[in-house]
Please model this.
Amino acid sequence: MSTQASSFSRECVTSYIDGQWQPAGAHLLDVVNPATEQVVARLSEADAAETDRAVQAARRAHQQGVWASKPAAEKQAIFRKIAQLTEAHLDELAQLESLNSGLPLRYLRSRQLPRIVRNFSFFADWQSQNVEKAGIQDDQYLRYVLREPAGVAALISPWNAPLALASTKIAAALSFGNCCVLKTAETTPLAVARFMEILTQAGVPPGVVNLINGRGAVTGDALVRHPDVRVVSFTGGTATGRAIAAAAAPGLKRVDLELGGKSANIVTATANLDDALDGALTSIYTNNGQQCFAGSRILLHRSIADEFIRRFVARAQAIRVGDPLDPGTEVGPLSNAAHYARVVSFVALAEQEGGRLLCGGKRPANLPTGYYLEPTAVLMPSNDNRVCQEEIFGPFAAFQVFDDFEDAIRIANASEFGLVSYLWSNDLAQVNRATRAIEAGVVLVNTPMVLDLRFPFGGYKNSGVGREGIEGMRHFYTEEKTVTIALKRPPMERLGAA
Ligand code: NAD
Model:
């Protein structure tokens, strides 16, 4: 099969290399709508040869300096144009994203996709603010740091926030002068593919951003191992992160790994319970429960536990589950059949482990098709239960009860993960104690997640390596070169002199 499409087509999403859609290859994958279980698109999987063509395109663009050597004002204008075009196409992008991810249109339209507009605007501003400093320590030397793009960046992103996460990586890689090859998740290529055209329309030169599609073990692995790739930015599961780090190691490639989580959400006796309730529901059920920073272990002080659970369950049971394209829907289907089966399996496991099902745990009666699960909550006897240790990545909350605040901290930290921790408390001493003692890259007090690129985002322990705030990105995507210029003759040995 060989069809050369001039614009993005759902008939067959192919690679986008050097600003051109490529002919379809031999291996096609189905793209399924998780709400209907119907095939809505096909994807052409890039093999090692096509992956190589994408990397070579990025390498050429990098060597020719078509992006890095542009004046900052020009790059800034392109970033602003990307933000503007994304905003103008938000409805179209949200429809495409929802169609293959099952994410509710309402959430995509109000939260996830507007973030792209903000991110590109942020990086546009950054273009004009980013200056390096020269240093003169004394009158002997002038020293400064040249910060140069790392080169070709491999960007690998997951399916739970396909365009939001992929586009943040693109913005960061470009911001620091790199060219890149993106491999988005094979189950959710649609909005990302359309976004490639927006980048080109905004003036990103051919070869600067290239897209390849396919399964991780095939296309992703070929990309990570490619000798001309210098850095690998990855967001996804912890096991995949390990495989990528191992594949990158022989080439001594720098890796940034944004991985899974099992975040504690601690509700103390002094919390504002209305706020804590909204926060807890938001943290576990938005994005269909598929978010790395989900507050999936909800730890309740015994004095408020009964009331909190009663109110939480009533609200969870009232959440509108259904067609993600319906603007009223709050929770849509899980992403794909295998993931659905895995998430559902934790319901029986929770009961085997001595847990009590509080709500949900089954398919909604009115939704016989699609990977739907009612918002689910269980009360577990021990933090050692697998339900409290493994990332479930669905609308599945595990409650535990604590008596002593130090116990809550101990439970929060008793996890292989350390991405995020939430605390609801109006006791300043508790807040200070928790923010110091909790082992997580992000601690949120009296608020659900708020993302801000000015600050680091990333995990402790098995939640990752590296940080996706502006400083972390700057170090990740650039090489530092220290230049030292003698201002007068420096003290030197005079070997061999008379
Ligand atoms: P995943 O690890 O299965 O896949 C992520 C991406 O990696 C996909 O594009 C996939 O094709 C690719 N991939 C898989 N195997 C590969 C390999 N061997 N080499 C190269 N690429 C490979 O993750 P997922 O299931 O798509 O996403 C869910 C996970 O992502 C969850 O664990 C979630 O917590 C995590 N996540 C983390 C963050 C964060 O910022 N920390 C954000 C979102 C999601």
About this structure: Confidence is low (pLDDT under 50) at residues 1-5. Residues 117 and 471 are 20 Å apart (CA to CA).
